[in-house]
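Troubleshooting: if your tokenizer reports a length mismatch, compare against these two reference records.
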Amino acid sequence: MRSRRIFLLFLGACSVAGFASGVTTAFLSSAHVEEPLPDEGISMTPPTSSLALEGVREMQEEITALSWASSQKRLAVSAGAQVSLWTADLAFRQTLAFPMRCSLLACSDQYIAASDQELVVYDWKSGHYVEIPAVPRPITGLAWVADTLLCACDQQLISWRQYRLQQISVFRAPIQRLAVVADRCAIAVGQEVMLLQGASWHEVATILLSLPVRALAWSPDGRFLAIADEGGGLALYRGSRQEKRVLSEHIASLAWSADGKCFISIGEGGLTVWDTSLQQQAQTLYQGQEVVWISSNHVLCSNKKQLTLWKQNEKEAAL
């Protein structure tokens, strides 16, 4: 009888120790919110919409950058040593002669910023180029916040406003990707994504990843950040907390719809529309390098020397 009592006490002690260990593990997991969730497969739920090709334009040179200016209703396209302007339905408007082949473009209400080894700014209103002081190389990201241009230059984040350059932050390694919306900024450096916020762009959080970033994009309201990594992973974050992650093909570019209800990716897996739970809403096997969302149901993308216009159509409900 005594030996049985000792055995039961031993089991009870093991249970308490196991419970304490479980509590400790749960607490540590909740503290590291940037720890990635397990990968999930692509949803097999039938898409609720389809993508239809509405227009194609062939360029003489390979396309190296796209940017949509919503206020001007113009698409800026860099091909060769020229930046051409197009309407939403791919009607040509004019050509701007730039001094170099541009790998980055960013449009605001008044300016077009372009860069490869140098930074060039064109004024829509005056039709003239703006003189810009030299910035560090290489330039890896451009983005406008109202009338302020943010520029990722080597290990520095620099702002340009009213003809003045100002250094914002210096990072320990070269900046690879830059995404900005309103007062939120995401900086990809190696396998980390730093989140900056406010008028002074102070760092508020860091997302730790297992692989370097290929593309990232904010939703228009700043609630979600979509991140595609080098291993084909696609994740959605709310702040620094990962909501969900799926495995996809390698993604080259991401763009959000204006209402923030879905975003689109383009890459080796084709052109895909995702909702905020990472369910596929529409897909076509057309591959490309860059994509921009230009209206509620239209997107433009580039593939080498080709510009294509796609429309997202809601599928009819099954009878």
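Reference record two:
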Amino acid sequence: MVLVGAFVGALLLLGLSSFTTLPFSSGPLGGVTPPERIDPFEAAQAGDCLNWDRADLADIGKVECSASHLFEVSGVVDISSEYGPQAPFPDATTWQTINADHCASESLKYLSNKLDPFGKYTVGPLNPGEKRWAAGKRTLRCGLQVAAPSGRLLPAYGSARTQDQSDVHDPGVCLGIQDNSIGDPVSCEEPHTFEIIGVVDLGAGNTRFPTEDEQESLMTERCDAIANEYSGGKVIKERGLLVTWDYRAQESWDAGSKLANCKVGALPNGTLLTAWTGSVHNPDAPPLAPSNPPQTSAVQQAEATGAPMHSEAPASESSAPSSPAPSSSTPPSSKENEEEGG
């Protein structure tokens, strides 16, 4: 069994991909009940959250959605009318079609038609594997997950139905570089594009969608203050770095996404992102504490959220190219789960 597909956004904003690596989770937080072992193809229902630690997914089980999890079931679909007993096992392109035709609508319904097209959640089906498919299994579990730019799954916390869907990270998270795009979270000692220094709630005191100019004014003030507190001095300018931030689009606001990151990055080299190493966090400050629930998403953002770089630098120097859509490939299969299927 493997996870396949990633549906980024709503019906008209598809960005589908297959996961090319299987996730390695750090497991439930301390004191959390271990996963309840279930057969997700027979028992999982909408609202169930699933987690696993093993690369072959052999230990997949049901957990409380408040705990760390990698998949939240958004619906159960029967595709037997389109893919009969003699239908070949779907390739990557066919899985994308199944995802768009079935899981997209199920997930939109699950979220009361509020899915942020630029947010942290992606949509995909649980792949039953070739053995189950050959046995005629055509009932699929669709679900929501948080995927990094590489396709690796990241832990989610809380039900997607109640979470702000903004694609934000906790302060102290550094984002790597991948083909001149923002990459997965990495150690700040490794080359990275940005270091997250804070989260701003654009909805605080705002009942209507703030224009880009209004967001610019608010984020300039808030991010400068956050940067001074985070760094404890002039280290940002001394290192030739810039305080930057993200915008939120109208579509995101309408879906309830109202959080935006303040971050620090290096001045781009023309249209090329510049990687840097180290952290600007004040070494004398108390250790950073993650939010509750932690913000650990790393989905590649679409251009509508704003260019990755915003600062007081000239426009030609303060923007970077939007991230390309994830590439599609055939996902790896889980040998153990294939052998258990029947």
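Descriptive notes for reference record two:
- The longest strand covers residues 139-147.
- The radius of gyration is 21 Å.
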